[in-house]
Every structure is written in structure tokens, then in C-alpha cells.
Amino acid sequence: MSTWAPLRSTSLRLGPVGTAAAATALTALFFIFIFVRRTIWSRTPSRPIAVSPARERVLVLGASSGLGRALALRYAARGARLCVVARRGERLRELVGECEGVVGGGGVGVGGAGEGGEKCIWEAADFSSPEDMVRVRERLLAEWGGVDTVLVCAGVAAVRPLMELTRLGANSSVPSSSSSSSPPSSSSPPSSSSPSSSSSSPPLTPNTNTSVAPGKQEQDATTEGLHTALTIATRATQANFLGPLVAATAFVPLLTRTSAAPALLLVSSVAAVVPAPTRALYAATKAAALLLYQSLAIEHPGVAVATVLPATIEGDFRAGAVDVVDEKKGGEQGGKGEGEKERGKYNMKGLKLGYVAQRCVDAVDRGVRGCVVVPWFPYAVAHHLYYVWPSFIEGRARRKYGFEA
User: Which residue spans traverse the membrane (predicted)?
Assistant: First the structure.
């Protein structure tokens, strides 16, 4: 008798409706189990026993604004020794002043491993630059003799549909329907068999649709458009994948050598695990970094590697998206340009910075290994549900972002 025979016979007795109900019940029990387990597990902070908050040596990459800045202030309030890193030195100087005010001034660090050194230090650096990260590492060794916690918060947004990237000109945003400029000669589909075939092709007019419904025609991307998309994708990859890669490879050995309880935390996004339109480039680069750190965690069991995946956070993070065109800067991408409502404006409806920052601190204190989705419901559920019912998640996303037929 086959091993699966009892299950098949049970399925036949229940019928399609009964089988679906049983599957739903089992799924519900699974999520209840996960919720209870997480609730009990979250009550047992363990890391402060090995590394007390007042002796902790913390490095925050991407600290000049947003979540990185909020994390720096929280660790400063706990009395940790703090090194803040970002590209904008003037903002870091202001942040250090705030951090010193929170802890009652800078001065000499508390005792412990790597005694002495300033309480709060800063370095203007690009976390995707090996030279810059080596310089930061040498500063940490000189000041404190090592590091206990590395928080990787830097990154960039991307907010356009993927095909729209190919329609971004060098000095303009997506062409408007009122544009009188003629398309470049390279806009015709190239042909390898006939060099002159482009002259016989009908001229193409700019596609002004942000989204193209199923069944409607999209125009082929030009060579120039493909280069534009590649340039934008390279910028996103540099910040969202290569930056975390350089940071991890630069500091993991130092963590393992100099900390009693080394911790590495990557701030990712729910976009890394739940696909959404207008987030293709952002989601892909965030997902790449997420898997990088998950694999790194397996390779380095001595380091508590955690990833925090928040939903949209309040702030103007999207204003500096790599695919937003700033017309005031001659069409430079990555500025505050005109576009959909979310671009260039402070988002008041997202998760509060303080709440997400505290979840990050809690994850480090508990020695979390793995993903922390914020909020857990509905996004963690959506992540798992996508693999068993993708059409449901995709349908909801299309309705939310206006990509329905």
C-alpha cells in the first residue's frame, strides 16, 4: 500500500471544499504557532549580558538621515560608543553634536575592551568604497580596539516601473504628450541584417504611460534608453548591493576578533520579499543584499546576522531615488524631480522612525539571527502567501498601484 494512499482517500472523502478548508485550517495553525513562538522568543534579550549597552561599540553606516540617524541617537542615549558614517560630513558633525548632548558630552569612552577613545566619532565615507571602509576600520581600531555592532542602513530608492527607465532622457523626465521634439534616429528598432532598416521603419512617438495595461502595446526600448536603464540600475546596485557587500567583507573579521558578541544588522525592506510594481529595481537590489547576508550568516555562525525588513517609513527617502529626474539640475537623476505624488515629498503616513529604530535595537539586543519583518502582519504573511497563492498577492498589488487592465 502506498504511503500517500490514506491521504488520497481522505482527500476524496472530504471533497474539494473540505480539502480547501483543511488546508486553510492548517495554514492558520502554522501562523498561530509562528506568532506565539515569536512572542515568547522576543521576551528573552540575551546579548546585553555579554556586551552591556554602556560598553557597546557601535558603527552606523548611513547615519546622516532617516533611520540611520534615529539609530545613532538611540544608541547615544544608551551610552554606547558610537561611530557614525555617511557621505555628507556637515550632517555628521551636526549629528555628533546631538549625540553628545544626549549623553551629556563626548569625552573619554567607558572601560572595557578597547578602553579610551572618544565617545562619539564620525567619518565622511562611502560605504561602497573599499578605501573608505578600510579607513573607517582603522579609525575604530585606533579609538576603541574594535567594534561590537555594525548597522548597515545606507541605500537608495527607485520608484519607477522598470520599462519607464528606458524612456528617461538624458536631460528630461518621461516625455509628455505635449512634447514637440522628434524622437532620435536610434528610436527605431535596430536590425543586424540591414543597417538601413531603421530609415524604413515608422517613426515612434514617446510613450507617456507610467503603466501599460495588459494587452496594450509598449514601444521597443532604444539603445539610448537601454543604456539609461543600465546606468540607473548600476547606481541602485552600487548602493543597495555592493555597499552592503563591501561593508560586510570589511567588518566581519574585525567583529569576530574584537567582540564578545558580534552583531551585524542590515536594514533591508519588505520589497525584498514581497514584489510590487514600480519597485522592480529597488526590490531586486534589496533582495540580492538580503540573500547575501543570509548566506553570510550561515558561513559565520559566530556573528549574529540580522536583517530588518520594514514597510514604508516616514521621511523623504524616496525624494533622492536614483530614477527621479531633477529638472533644476539639468536632468540629473537622483534628485527631487517632478513625478508621482510620492516623489520629492515628506511621507507622513509611513512607519515612525522611532518605532523602526527600536525594533532594530531590540533585534540586536536579542541576538536575532534571520529576518525581522516590520510590521509582521500583513507583510510576513504576504511573503509566505505569495509562494502558495501568487495570483492573490499580484492582484492586490496591481489594484493598489493602478496596474489593472
Answer: 20-37
